[in-house]
Amino acid sequence: MINKDLLALPEKAGRVVKDGEFPFAAVGLSHGHIYGMCDGLIKAGATLKWVYDENPALIEDFRKKYPEIPVAKSLDEILCDKEVKLVASADIPSKRCPLGIKVMESGKDYFADKAPLVTLSQLDAARDAVRRTGKKYAVYYGERLGSECAMFAGTLIERGAIGRVINVIGMGPHKLANGEKRGEWFYKRETQGGILIDIGSHQIEQFLYYTGNRRATVTSSRIANYSHKEFPEFDDFGDCNLLGANGATGYFRVDWFTPQGVKPFGDGRTVIVGTDGYIELRKYTNIGIEDVGNNMIIATNDGVESLNVTGKIGLPYFGQLILDCLEGTEKAMTQEHAFYSAELSVLAQNGAVECDR
Amino acid sequence: MINKDLLALPEKAGRVVKDGEFPFAAVGLSHGHIYGMCDGLIKAGATLKWVYDENPALIEDFRKKYPEIPVAKSLDEILCDKEVKLVASADIPSKRCPLGIKVMESGKDYFADKAPLVTLSQLDAARDAVRRTGKKYAVYYGERLGSECAMFAGTLIERGAIGRVINVIGMGPHKLANGEKRGEWFYKRETQGGILIDIGSHQIEQFLYYTGNRRATVTSSRIANYSHKEFPEFDDFGDCNLLGANGATGYFRVDWFTPQGVKPFGDGRTVIVGTDGYIELRKYTNIGIEDVGNNMIIATNDGVESLNVTGKIGLPYFGQLILDCLEGTEKAMTQEHAFYSAELSVLAQNGAVECDR
Lengths: 357, 357
Description:
The structure is a homodimer.
Chain A: E1 23-27, H1 33-43, E2 47-52, H2 56-65, H3 75-79, E3 86-89, H4 93-105, E4 109-113, H5 120-133, E5 137-140, H6 142-145, H7 148-158, E6 165-173, H8 189-192, H9 195-198, H10 200-211, E7 216-224, E8 237-244, E9 249-255, E10 269-274, E11 277-282, E12 295-300, E13 303-308, H11 316-327, H12 335-350, E14 353-354
């Protein structure tokens, strides 16, 4: 049996500020991730003060979920509101960086959905704006930060539960259509960035985090369009190999081939192998067993345990982010980790071998 | 729900010859795989006529399982026995090829444990001997051929159950010590070949088979010795990327880090993604759920099914191999598939990047 102290749950994440202490705005609603971002902030105590998008239809949808939230007349109205501390955005990927720079230049912190940017010149501009303004360009890598089992895995690794991490395999399959209509931007390289940037960035962030690497190399990467030829620029498949500066290895596969028989958007998995054991995460479904998320299996020399941590961990990232903004700390995530994950994603995409198109 | 006809079980593999119609010998008992090889042949009707090894201790162990089997005085005694149709061997990997050439030159077919050879010059010699003698150099890639769920996966792919196969991820973790003492040869590159040859060859064979490729490229490979520094030549980790001629992609990880808490020798998995669904094999344990092998999960647009096929498929490879020997066919496996899997394994090992040593 694995020692119970080793598997002890941390205190569940809760509110970190009182009502009105951390007003924020939602700007750029193109991707549904904006809901997870706003929900997470609100649960941690933040106050959603404004919403804005150039597209009135997206605002209308947003207000079905948040009917009370005032609609700003323009982005400027939000940027001029001195009370607003942070702007959250799930705009079209290629627009996330220019928006973020404006937000930071207005003296507010910025919180972008992943991928936070789609080119190396955007990355340079974003890094420069952070240096100039002293503000944050936080990134919501939701496949770890929005997953209770993924957060708990980080805790167990820190406790040394599986020894030195030597390999991480990430599987990030997704449904192309899950009741959600995709905009034209989704199928274009210039606006979406490509699969290794779009959903690959989640995986790269997890590799760096779980292996404890500040630096790594993309040793090889591949993309393909196997069966969506009607969208010639679209990648329906991508994979990538990573080598961390500390010698840990990684591989991930991302794809848009999750069949309709699978209930959630994808059967996301992470397998983390250490020198003294391994952890498998079945994030969104325990496929073939039970349709529940947040499943973790841990195997060590002492035994094997299967846990479900739904509702037990919470999402500590959001409260930490709020406090980081208020206190100038980097407990939720360092700026460099957020940017470097994006940098490797762009490098992986730009250097990818085409397997089929 | 997935259509029942699609998932219909094939007729269970049984005996293909009568007692005495297919006498064979076991020569070279260094690896425990010899037992699976002999058992498989015997269940398909073959008759074990002789056993031989230079090491009397290995013969003694063998005769605990097969007490009735006569011990030959020498290899020559077996090679001169005209009744013997095939020699099965799980000798030290570097000795498998020289033995196989002698066997084929004596007019008998040869059946080697994987890896069947450890260098490209051995491969050249083996190919040449097959051409000269017209005999077979069959290879027991047991992680497919000895796994009922892995065999059934092949059937489902042939039926088109998941469409075109675009990616195969293999995880082949192993326990270093599972009640089994490893010989010195196991830790030496010259005799064992290296991890990508030893246990990587299983994975390469599966990739070629499931993706339907006769040719593929090793696009990158890595080895490491993370924490067995007392054996400086030993690889405790390896991984590899494959690109099939038809555009399908593959990755596998092999390692010797399976912790003692896991009951079988390793939590071997295969995840096969097609354009219309995917199959996951949990070959030796349904980790964290139930300690049974031969678990298959299949997800398609019609639903998800979880199957356990223990005792339902049998191991058709052995009967097919016997008939191939008797009838000159290649139904069990083509000679070229057996050799080419070995060729890519050697190329993967020889070209591997060292991540830690």
